[in-house]
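mind reviewing this fold:
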Amino acid sequence: MTTGTARGWYASTDNEVAITESTFGQGKTVFCGYPAGLQYFASCPYDMACGFTVSRLASTEADTLAFETWCAREMKKLGVTADVDVPQALMLRTQVADSMDRYQVFRQGPDYRAMAYEREQPGRTFITHLRTRAGIDNAYGVVHNTEAEYRNFRGDYRMTLTGGRATVRLAPAIVGGAPDQAVVYDVRLGVPVRVAASAEGAEFQTWVPVSMASVFAVAPRGAVRLFGDPPKAGEGPTEVSARVAACARGAGLQPL
């Protein structure tokens, strides 16, 4: 990248360019010299490390947070904003682990107990999706808590009170420009959710368990439309727990 305009430099004395911007016709490209794999791991440590505070501190970099903020600000300048996002989240957990040695934390007893909460701004542990269909004024959003999503050896941990409280923000286009009239319905719990109007659309709060998702129907005019229960496929919790208890690492576990 030798023809672009420099936008950022590495923190060194060599004056090395880290971010360049180029314009091609009506398009624009921004090239950022940052390892994509490291950026993912550093920005989403929960889904890899089961949410332990020690892992959170070890794998989160201030530079990564600043870079994410800069990218979001640049996208907003171009008019690219999210229809639904999580500006703030509160992670709460009580955990018992039987094998903390992998984190080089040694305890006198057989179990290591931890209670902690962490605040995220923005809520980077949550992934949001939004779907609409022509002819239907409802929008359907998913708020997915990725904590422990890809964690290996989950049987090593027993977790209670684990999950995250997410503040979900809806863009004005999703609530029809009248956030005070919109209704949000929690499909997983089967209850309506209190909605508050804001300068950027509407906001509501929800609690999502670890490694799970919640679905919400957003009705701009107050009439919620659902489509019934989806057909069941695959094995249920009872069948899965029985197979886990029967395997070598599941010895001693009680099936549901």
Q: What stands out?
A: Residues 62-77 form the longest helix (16 residues). Helices lie at 36-43, 46-49, 53-59, 62-77, 237-246. Residues 82-224 form a domain with the Immunoglobulin-like fold (CATH 2.60.40.1180).
